[in-house]
Design goal:
Elements lengths: L3 E4 L7 E4 L14 H4 L8 E6 L3 E4 L5 E4 L7 E4 L4 E4 L2 H40 L1
Parallel strand pairs: 2-3
Antiparallel strand pairs: 1-3, 4-5, 6-7
Amino acid sequence: MLSSVVIEPKKPADSCVIWLHGLGANGHDFEPIVPELGLPDSLATRFIFPHAPEMPVTINGGMVMPAWYDILEMNIDLINQKIEFGAPSTQWWSQLATAVAGGLAFATVLTLVLTPCLLMLGRNKHQK
């Protein structure tokens, strides 16, 4: 079971809020929010702020940090103003980027190695 910060109400709880923190944080980060909510004592709400387990996070170079799940990739959609983590469109962009990088590497070899060699072969044939 995960360790967590639990804030109990003054009387027996009749409701509960489980509040998850973000990447790299822990349950203590939101602990100060409870009094700021200004909830009446009549609600008797228990607050539970669990701590995520520590794990390597791929998108952060494999750095070990508190995380609820591994984030493999990120997709930034400027038109719809959305950021998605590990979305299917991210996989498509990743494949496209790999293809473009491979094409550029191939074009570089053609331009810097093969083209000068072919030009020299053609030049040598004309000189004979």
